[in-house]
TrEMBL record:
The lineage of its organism: Bacteria, Pseudomonadati, Aquificota, Aquificia, Aquificales. One of its GO terms (molecular function) is RNA helicase activity. This is Crispr-associated helicase Cas3. Residues 1-182 form the Helicase ATP-binding domain. One of its GO terms (biological process) is defense response to virus.
Length: 495
């Protein structure tokens, strides 16, 4: 059927061609493809620009300039001029297809002064919202209200995910056609619930690694990931164990993202939600803390990902869910929704989860009657009502505060600054010069030394440049921004 002139809602399993469907649905029209996190946006940009060409594809998020700078490191000066023009085109929303974080488009829902430019563009555009479950309830309300308004203005949207919340469909059912779900018939995941903390599964992880497996351990918070990494390193010095989370300097994070995707030998990687929907990895075994149903199903998608990798009823479980004292409960994830998730999963302990069963679990956990009294839904509902009553942000910065869960500061840890002081000072000097090309090259190099950290994590900051700060955050080459440090114990509980 031809859906090109309609807004659509699609539930489809990982690997069943959601992205291809969305790009066909765009059908040559102007489009915005939004995702929850920058890593996902960067990855999707590479994929889409390979199809449509870099001249037709833009990337838009808080670090757009940095992204293009990294692309330009080996270019001659005239190539950098072209990139400068491209950044300007992206910021003016004039590229045929733009891959972006949601805040770049949906801030306009908050009607800050100047929002009309975005809405005017959206009246003749198509907007793809991929993985809506990746947003906080506050942000999700802004996005859903934005989709309603885009529809009223004549724009079209495609909302798609592997794990659709029923209440999202309920809010948008009059604005879009809800398509039949597309499920992968392959059986890929068999779960086992263990009444242990993720720390207590370290010996099991080592044994599975020694059998030749690629093991992925996922935690709900950066601090817990760092704790597990330290335990593993102290238990056995000979194993290949690595750590990845969002709080490394950019250069290290890029290197680690490449490593986790390109590893072919037995290894143990410990990580966080950063891998849920952003990195194309295929591991043999997942050991994860209990989170919410939608998050867990995204995590499962990192195991037996490739077509043809399947599991049988007599196989050992390849998804181990640790139900004891999961980190971030009530802070990163809603406590009641985690409890509902565990209740549902108990029906499938040591059983295969088909894709249909996974969606059934999500539908049951996020059933409106069940969740309407949870903090998660109360936040969502409160923000929807505020927007329906005509909330208007006084400024763009006030609007950005609503999206603060995806807004970060670029910080150079003092220990990194001290090690590279001469180089960093030279780069800062170039940034203050008038030569535009030298300035842009210097900003790109300087960003390699920065950690992208949410503002509430950072203390004692000193501005080095307009958008780059120096901070005495405890930083460790192995651990990254060290949330095990005694001064950071409290905020370390947050993702």
């Amino acid at each position: 059927l031809d859906y090109k002139n309609k807004s659509v809602i699609l539930t489809a399993s990982t690997g069943m061609g959601k992205t291809e469907f969305a790009l066909n649905w765009v059908a040559g029209d102007k489009a915005f493809y939004t995702l929850p996190v920058r890593v996902s946006v960067n990855s999707m940009y590479e994929r889409i620009s390979n199809i449509f060409g870099k001249d037709n594809t833009g990337i838009l998020h808080a670090n757009t300039t940095d992204f293009y700078l990294n692309q330009s490191k080996n270019l001659e000066d005239n190539g950098i001029e072209v990139l400068i023009n491209q950044v300007q085109s992206v910021r003016q929303l004039s590229m045929p297809i733009t891959v972006s974080t949601a805040d770049q488009i949906f801030l306009a829902t908050l009607k800050y002064p100047g929002f009309e430019k975005i809405y005017a563009t959206l009246t003749y555009s198509k907007v793809i919202v991929d993985e809506p479950q990746g947003y906080s309830p506050d942000t999700l309300a802004v996005i859903i209200k934005g989709l309603e308004e885009i529809s009223n203005l004549g724009g079209k949207f495609c909302l798609m995910t592997a794990t659709m919340h029923p209440f999202i469909k309920e809010h948008l059912k009059d604005k879009a056609e809800i398509l039949e779900p597309v499920f992968n018939p392959e059986k890929k995941h068999k779960i086992k619930l263990v009444e242990k903390t993720v720390d207590e599964m370290v010996d099991f992880a080592i044994k599975e690694y020694q059998k030749g497996k690629k093991v992925l351990i996922l935690t709900n918070t950066v601090r817990k990931a760092q704790e597990v990494y330290k335990i593993l390193k102290s238990q056995n010095q000979t194993i290949r164990v690595n750590l990845l989370h969002s709080l490394y300097i950019q250069k290290t994070k890029r290197e680690k993202e490449m490593q986790i995707q390109n590893t072919t030998e037995p290894v143990i990687w410990i990580s966080t939600q950063i891998v849920e929907a952003s990195l194309d990895i295929d591991y043999d075994l997942l050991i994860t803390e209990l989170s919410t149903a939608d998050s867990l199903i995204q995590r499962m998608g990192r195991v037996y990902r490739k077509i043809g990798r399947t599991i049988t009823p007599d196989s050992q479980p390849n998804i181990i869910i640790c139900t004891k004292e999961p980190s971030g409960k009530g802070k990163v994830y809603d406590k009641e929704i985690m409890d509902y998730t565990l209740r549902e999963l108990k029906n499938y302990d040591e059983k295969i989860l088909t894709e249909e069963i996974k969606q059934e679990i999500v539908s049951n956990v996020f059933d409106l009657e069940r969740i309407k009294n949870t903090n998660f839904y109360k936040k969502f509902d409160k923000n929807m009502k505020l927007l329906e009553y005509g909330f208007i942000a006084d400024s763009k910065s006030e609007a950005q505060d609503i999206f603060r869960d995806i807004m970060n500061l670029s910080v150079i840890p003092k220990v990194i600054f001290d090690e590279n002081q001469e180089k960093i000072n030279a780069l800062l000097e170039k940034i203050r010069q008038k030569d535009k090309i030298e300035k842009i090259k210097a900003i790109g190099e300087l960003n390699d030394f920065t950690v992208s950290a949410q503002f509430y994590r950072v203390k004692n900051i000193i501005p080095l440049d307009k958008e780059i700060f120096l901070s005495d955050i405890p930083y460790d080459k192995e651990l990254g921004f060290n949330l095990l440090d005694k001064d950071y114990r409290e905020i370390g509980e947050i993702l």
